[in-house]
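Hi P.,

Sorry for the delay on this. The queue was packed all week, but I finally got your sequence through. Input first:
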Amino acid sequence: MGLKETVTDALFSYETEKIVQVPSYKVGVIYRLIQLAIVLYVLIVVIIKDKGYQDKFPASGVSATKLKGIAYPRDVDNDNYKRVWDVADYVYPQNLESSFTVITNAVITPQQTPGTCPEDPEIGPLCDCEVESNCSDQCERGMMKRSGNGQLTGKCVASAVDPDTKVCEIQGWCPVEVDKLPNEGVLLDEAVNFTVFIRNTVEFTKFDFIKRNVLDPSTLHDCTYSEDNVFCPIFRIGSILDWADVKFEDIAVRGGIMGIYITWDCDLDQSWESCEPEYTFDREDDPESGGHNFRYANYYRQDGRQYRDLIKAYGIRFDIIINGTGRKFDIVVLVNNIAAGLALLAIASIVGDFLIMYVEENRTFYKHQKISVISEEIMEKATTMYGAIDESKKSESE
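Then the structure:
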């Protein structure tokens, strides 16, 4: 056989696998059941349940918040706390897009000014020496403690909290903060009735789809959120905690972190109105972790001196998490999922071959029918025979 014939046979010949039909009722039933299970899986799970006929794209969105409410602490005698607290006082920092903090408790240290004063005995270092000049080993001048309030001056002085206790003197903002809450309860207990308006816009850029969680702003004056009114995103703080199964008293004293999840799971093959947000709420921090607190200061000048009011604020931080999926029919996605499902039908053939060749009683016979083994003797006879045929064809061509 010449080169031309070899190339022609290789390019224009068709090869097929050998099929052996085995009369086995048991294996046949198993084979068909597997095929049926695969087809049902593709239809019910992949196509119907998982929407295998739709393309999917994740949601992207932005949010903005606005809080309302006032509080007046009643169970405290200190005038630094006993005043009306409004949004400018209990929301800090202002104008964050995806989170906000409602202050519920605070430690206020008023009229601090730069100078020297005794360190907080809870922070230390403590000292005990009769002559201040001999305290350099206990209050090393210039040293700063990581958790301290200033730089040590080298002097040992009486504590402002307890005159019988000697502490090192510091240079910093004085008097130092005494980290003690004004009462055992919640300073701003009326925060449970504050409300927050969460304005949210979601977009599925691949499908050119945009929607907001407010349909008609004129309806927001006298409504609050409920499962029957999802397009009124005005939430009472106490209700958010109730939905998350968190007690206000448990989280407001030392603060905590809450999550507000806005989920847009939209079938864009349906009407525009059917795409609605779903709100869920949960506590994100560990209640045993110590809560949530931070410090900030209000600075001012008086009689030529600089002052500040230091506030250690305990509060509830609310994180707004936007997620979701937009889905829309796509013929390419449907064909790919069907093709991938049909490819699973090969599993039925694999199981059937395994049962026939390794489990059935006549497995040895079936195996010989399925697999043809060519011995060396047959190969030699075939080589001689086909060689003679090739020589005959060559002589005829000449």
